Amino acid sequence: MHMFDPFFLTLIPLMVAIDAPGVLPIYLVLTDGIEIREKKRIVRESVFTALLVTLLFVLLGRAVFNILGILVEDFMIAGGILLMIISISDMLNAGAARTVVAPASGVVPLGTPLLAGPATLTTCLLLVGNYGYLPVIFSLIVNLILAWLLFDKADVIVRKIGINGTRVITRLASLLLAAIAVRMIRLGISRIISTGQ
User: pLDDT tens-digit profile of 112-166?
Assistant: First the structure.
C-alpha cells in the first residue's frame, strides 16, 4: 500500500483543484441546445486541452515564468479577468437563444482556464515538488477521466434534475463563474501583497 501513497496524496488535492462538478453547470450553459455529437466533441477538446496545458505547465512552467518574469499570482489574476469577461458576456446575453457555440468552447473556457486553471496548475507545481512527476501526472489523468465521464453523462444528470433544475443551474452558472473569477483575482492580489512582490 505504501507505494500507492503518493498517488492518493496527489489525487485528492487535484480533484479539489480541478473541481469538475463545479465546472458542470458552466458546461451545461455553454452546450445548451446543441447536438449530442457536438457536445461530445467539446468534452473531448476540453479534457485534452486541460491535459496538454497542465502537462506543459508542469514540465516547463517554472522555467518559462522565470524567463518572462511572470509570477504564479500574475497567472491567477489574468485567468480571473478572462473568466470575468466570459461571465459578464453570458449574463448580458442570458435572454438570448443560444444557437451557436463557439468552435473553441472546449478549449476556452472549459479546457482552460476552468479545468486547467490557476488552481490546477499551481497545485500540480506544488505536488511535483513534494511527490515527483509520475504520481502527479497519473493523478491528473485519473481526475480528467472522471471529468470526462461527468460531462459525457451530463444529459442523464439533467434528466434526473428536470427542466426547472436545469434552468436554475444555467441561470446561476454565470454568477458562479463570476464568483470564481473574483476569487482568482483576489487570491492573486492578496498573495502579491503578502509576499511584497
Answer: 888 998 778 888 887 887 788 999 999 999 999 999 998 999 888 777 876 566 5
Q: How far is CA 67 from CA 4, 43, 54, 192, in A?
A: 35, 33, 19, 19
3-state secondary structure of 104: coil
The dihedral sign for the CA sequence 79, 191, 70, 47:
negative
Total domains in the fold of the chain: 1
30 backbone φψ class: left, alpha, beta (φ>0; ψ -120 to 50): alpha
For the chain, list residues with pLDDT below 50.
1, 97-100
103 touches 145 (CB < 8 A) = no
For residue 132, the enclosing domain spans 2-195
